[in-house]
Amino acid sequence: MAGMTLTLHYHPLASFCWKPLVALYERGIAFEPVVVDLAAPADRAAFAAVWPFLKFPVLVDDARGATVAESSTIIDFLDAFHAGGMVPADPDRAWRARMWDRVFDSYVQIPMQRVVLDAIRPPEGRDPIGVAEARAALRDAWRHLATTFAPDPWALGADFTLADCAAAPALFYGNLVEPLGPDDALLRGYLGRLMRRDSFARVLAEAEPWFGFFPLDPQPSRVPPDA
């Protein structure tokens, strides 16, 4: 795209890529999307030249000569240099947004990914003990979130923040891997609101052609859980 300074290297199905995508769409920040298929040798080689660790998402800002990796850092970078505005200016709200960002990444996304990645391994390479531990960690996360987290309507109240960018993919995929239970109505309602938010709805619409590659049942759906 002519005049474009931001390029996001990502995959539409990758949960950690959804965080900066939500932030970009939330603030209407223009960028060039580059879909990376690590199974394609040409894509892999091209991406390795950008980020040799071969982990996405990665944002490249040509105007600043910056290559920015890791989803939370990308959102901080957008806030600092592209009027992203996803981290509250108030310090007390800022640490809360960052805390919930880390909670959703560490306690929901990481165990969720352990289960999903195990499902795409050959049978002889699977780790049933690790999968059982990851599912238990997700159930623990649902239980703890039910008693410590009260989004109304968003993670920090009226404003949609970094915490919600993190919660959207974590809850969406986590609910597929270890479904929210009857005592998790608050989280189901929050996930439904996230899925109807224009920015996240756009992310889901763009990912839908890839949903068939998700290795577990049920398959992803754009229908909110409380619909």
Concise structural overview:
It is built from 8 helices and 4 strands, in the order E-H-E-H-E-E-H-H-H-H-H-H. It has helices at residues 15-27, 41-50, 71-81, 91-119, 128-148, 162-177, 185-196, 198-207, and strands at 6-10, 32-35, 58-61, 66-69. The model has no long low-confidence stretch (mean pLDDT 96).
Summarize the SSE layout with pairings.
Blueprint: E1 6-10, H1 15-27, E2 32-35, H2 41-50, E3 58-61, E4 66-69, H3 71-81, H4 91-119, H5 128-148, H6 162-177, H7 185-196, H8 198-207
Parallel strand pairs: 1-2
Antiparallel strand pairs: 1-3, 3-4
Describe this protein's structure:
This protein is of the alpha+beta class and 227 residues long. The protein folds into two domains: 6-81, 3-Layer(aba) Sandwich (Glutaredoxin); 91-197, Glutathione S-transferase Yfyf (Class Pi), Chain A, domain 2, CATH 1.20.1050. 54% of the residues lie in helices and 7% in strands. The longest helix has 29 residues, at 91-119. The model has no long low-confidence stretch (mean pLDDT 96).
